[in-house]
Amino acid sequence: MEQSQPLKKSSSRGELLGDIFVDVDYQPITFEYGTFKQVVHALKTSSTDYDLTGQIIWKAADIMSKYIIDHLGPSVLKDQTVLEIGSGPGLCALVAQHFAKTVILSDYQDLVMDLIAINCEKCAVPTCQLLSTQLDWMKCKEADYYETLPVLEYDGKQMVDHARLPAIGIDYIIGSDIVYWTSSIEPLMDVLTLLFQRNSATLKAFYFCYIERHVVTHTQLKGALSKAWDGGFVVEEVMSEFAKGIDPNAYIYKVTARGSE
């Protein structure tokens, strides 16, 4: 998960990432959930030239967004601060902004952060403060990393400095399809440990949607969550019928710190 290199513009439809052409022909895509509609800018298909999964909307994000609308919404997220980890284009965060007080989108690749900035500019609603931060899971163990992590806001022209992440108390974390390979599990545990430690006075739960593609990865993920940080997280599958009614391999989990449930 190394940070990408500065981008050099090649055309209106793509950019160069080093020597690799990357598609940035983002289109507005409308997701409809009954009477609720959310527009998000993203690629309609994944790039075949570079593995930037953060440029497209995955099915788990669609499922998680519906879960937010139907089961979290104003009853849970009202007046709360929500952080989405591994946002990609940020569909779940953009849906959550309709209910929460503050929503922070996060990812780590420069190109994805550029896409997040586009969605902060074009898709923000006036009732919520929409922010972003470049949260690199691989750096979570570095001294003072969290304390110095900048949070940005759109000022009408560009993304500008708003605060440092510790100044913003996080109430809920959301995510979707944040683990594809077993190699991502340990960095995920690191970032969750960091976030729960630094926000122990406010952080209530982490909700995420996971679609099982490999049984081994899923099993290791659940095991790692149960053993991580201060005696382990409490992992609870919620709304099984809801998730599997959309995709038989979909799971929605609620993760809390042991002792807080």
Secondary-structure blueprint of this entry?
Layout: E1 8-11, E2 14-17, E3 20-23, E4 27-33, E5 36-42, H1 59-77, E6 81-84, H2 91-96, E7 102-107, H3 110-123, E8 129-134, E9 150-154, E10 159-164, E11 172-176, H4 185-198, E12 205-211, H5 215-227, E13 233-237, H6 240-244, E14 250-257
Parallel strand pairs: 6-7, 6-11, 7-8, 11-12
Antiparallel strand pairs: 1-2, 2-3, 4-5, 8-9, 9-10, 12-14, 13-14
GO cellular component, one term: nucleus
GO molecular function: protein methyltransferase activity
Pfam family, one: Methyltransf_16
Describe the structure.
There is one protein chain. The chain is α/β, with parallel strands linked by helices and 261 residues long. The protein has one domain: Vaccinia Virus protein VP39 (Rossmann fold, 3-Layer(aba) Sandwich), CATH 3.40.50. The protein is built from 6 helices and 14 strands. It has helices at 59-77, 91-96, 110-123, 185-198, 215-227, 240-244, and strands at residues 8-11, 14-17, 20-23, 27-33, 36-42, 81-84, 102-107, 129-134, 150-154, 159-164, 172-176, 205-211, 233-237, 250-257. The protein has a 9-stranded mixed β-sheet, sandwiched between helices. A hairpin with a 2-residue loop joins strand 4 and strand 5. The longest helix has 19 residues, at 59-77. The protein is globular. The protein starts with 7 loop residues before the first strand and ends with a strand. Mean pLDDT is 89; it is low at 1-13. GO terms for molecular function: protein methyltransferase activity. InterPro entries: Methyltransf_16, METTL22, SAM-dependent_MTases_sf. One of its GO terms (cellular component) is nucleus. Pfam families: Methyltransf_16 (PF10294).
